[in-house]
Amino acid sequence: MTRNATNELLQKAKKSKSDEFYTQLSDIESELQHYKIHFENKVVYCNCDDPRISNFFNYFASNFKELSLKKLITACYREQVRDLFNTEEDENGFFFEYTGTECEKNKPSSTNIVYFNGDGDFRSSESIELLKQSDIVVTNPPFSLFREFVAQLVKYDKKFLIIGNINAITYKEIFKLIKENKAWLGINFGRGISGFVVPEHYELYGTEARIDSLGNRIVSPNNCLWLTNLDTYKRHEDIALTKRYFGNEDEYPKYDNYDGININKTQDIPIDYKGYMGVPITFLHKFNPDQFEIIKFRKGNDDKDLSVNGKCPYFRILIKNKRSASSQSLNRSNKSSTIY
Ligand SMILES: C[S@@+](CC[C@H](N)C(=O)[O-])C[C@H]1O[C@@H](n2cnc3c(N)ncnc32)[C@H](O)[C@@H]1O
């Protein structure tokens, strides 16, 4: 096998691995508790979820009345494997609509399951028809198709609350949405998302893997986020700024290729600097668009990665403080948020 072919196989294996991370009910509950007001009389679509096992289905079906939902639609994708060795068609994908009664012992009743003509891919016309009837999409989509997944939500102008990898921030299409305030990070982030259930064949390794009391295999990659366009209290909280630039200029080196200073930790953003500042991508978890403006991502004036004395810190986001120093210290006494 050529090196390219081996790489391709490894790439595929890696992709399909993270595509099989199943979300735990506790993580869904811990995030969804902050969005209840958004769901009244709404149609929720979980379009990457087998309702027989998905905790998204479980959560919305169990909380259907409490959230005053109008309808819950859950669609299950079934990959159609057709190649030289496997010519049999797998079963088709299917969907299930729930309006408060169609469950038996909290599981979808089989009489209400409707088969698609195809595999139930979220991009298929059949799944898009269901998307059009929905108000809010809530799921953990396949990581390898994250860009396409978000692009489709934007195209159909849908509200969403979805799980992705932190690195998704660095995708130019996703960063653009965040910069334009069309999407933002949810409440839980990184270690705040406790872990995912993985299938039997997934090898557990390291301290961030375990088997829970029910025998589920759990991995905690600690590198995920919630991406949403539903408002949360968090994006209206100021980051409490306690550091000063003037008097500590040595701690804030200027970039070689941009008129701005480099900052390694969100908590080190100085209160008294009015120019451009480069901060790590984790800043976005604390971002309040009334306090800061996002200017651009990663690149200096020469279109190369931002650098300090020839060295490039890991992806930086250039921001500017929107407030004056005096109003900021006033705000600081009124509102604050913990910085991790
Ligand atoms: C990361 S897992 C998450 C599953 C479930 N949403 C959850 O959170 O527990 C992604 C799921 O998307 C499904 N999937 C993969 N490709 C898909 C596609 N093109 N369209 C719809 N679903 C897909 C996979 O079968 C898998 O169940």
What does this protein structure show overall?
Residues 326-340 have low confidence and may be disordered. This protein has two domains: 13-233, 3-Layer(aba) Sandwich (Rossmann fold); 237-334, no CATH class. The chain is of the alpha+beta class and 340 residues long. The chain has seven helices and 18 strands. An eight-stranded mixed beta sheet has the order 7-4-3-2-8-9-14-10, sandwiched between helices. It has a four-stranded antiparallel beta sheet with strand order 1-11-13-12. Strands 15-16-18-17 form a four-stranded mixed beta sheet, with no helix packed on it. Helix content is 20%, strand content 22%. It is elongated, with a radius of gyration of 22 Å. It binds S-adenosylmethionine (SAM). S-adenosylmethionine binds next to strand 1 and helix 3. S-adenosylmethionine (SAM) is lined by residues 19-23, 48-49, 54-56, 77, 121-122, 139-142, 145.
Outline the fold blueprint.
Layout: H1 3-18, E1 22-23, H2 25-32, E2 43-46, H3 55-62, E3 71-76, E4 94-98, E5 103-104, E6 107-108, E7 113-115, H4 125-132, E8 136-139, H5 146-155, E9 159-165, H6 172-179, E10 184-189, E11 196-198, E12 209-211, E13 217-219, E14 224-228, E15 260-262, E16 276-280, E17 292-297, E18 316-321, H7 325-334
Parallel strand pairs: 2-3, 2-8, 8-9, 15-16
Antiparallel strand pairs: 1-11, 3-4, 4-7, 5-6, 9-14, 10-14, 11-13, 12-13, 16-18, 17-18
The structure holds S-adenosylmethionine (SAM).
